[in-house]
Amino acid sequence: MLLQEAERRNPGPWAGHSRVAASCAERIADRCPGMDADKAYVLGLLHDIGRRAGVRQLGHVAEGVAYMKALGYDEAARVCLSHSFNTQSVKEYVGKADVTKEEMAAIREGLDSMAYDDYDRLIQLCDAIAGTEGVMDMRARMEDVRRRYGRYPKAKWEANLRLQGYFEEKMGMGLQEALQGLQTQDQAAP
Ligand SMILES: [Fe+2]
């Protein structure tokens, strides 16, 4: 319901991307001992919920954190922040730093005080493989982001590949195998 309401306020491919990320997260968590697939699904749905407030780049992180905290959903709030920073540094953000000084300070403080858990890592991974209509090859998805935003930091690229290995080890199977049957997408939408 939250995602549907947000999509009505700011329609865009981000909503489909959120649903794909959620399906991936659910599937992967289900195969990882000790992880809750329903929680992973919900966190995937809500990771970009800050986009409800309009088209903003880094701003969607600040909006998402504030919105989820206001509703009392602290675990979703942390994923609204952590999903954009798989090296836990604000410098790696791909996109415009369209935030106020206060928002930037809150983002820095949040990142500095956070110890990532497996749900943070899982949504980072799913963000890196979720297209707008289906699961993408991670490299193709990173190339797509590079094309749209003009850059993709090497450290972030490598961190995504490490995340893939981390979850493959936990699942005891390859990512592709784990996600078999989910809708796939070869190329980014134009
Ligand atoms: Fe995001």
* Major sheet characteristics: none
Order of helices and strands: HHHHHHHHHH
Structural class: mainly alpha
| Average predicted local confidence, pLDDT | 95
Walk me through the structure.
With 190 residues, the protein is mainly α. It has one domain (2-87, 97-178). It is built from 10 helices and no strands. It has helices spanning 2-9, 13-30, 37-46, 58-70, 74-82, 101-112, 118-127, 138-149, 154-171, 175-178. The mean pLDDT is 95. The chain binds fe (ii) ion. Fe (ii) ion (FE2) binds next to loops.
In short:
The protein has helices at 2-9, 13-30, 37-46, 58-70, 74-82, 101-112, 118-127, 138-149, 154-171, 175-178. With 190 residues, it is mostly helical. The chain has one domain (2-87, 97-178).
Features:
190 residues, single chain
What's the SSE blueprint?
Blueprint: H1 2-9, H2 13-30, H3 37-46, H4 58-70, H5 74-82, H6 101-112, H7 118-127, H8 138-149, H9 154-171, H10 175-178
Helix pairs in contact: 2-3, 2-7, 4-5, 7-9
Fe (ii) ion binds at residues 47-48, 60, 83-84.
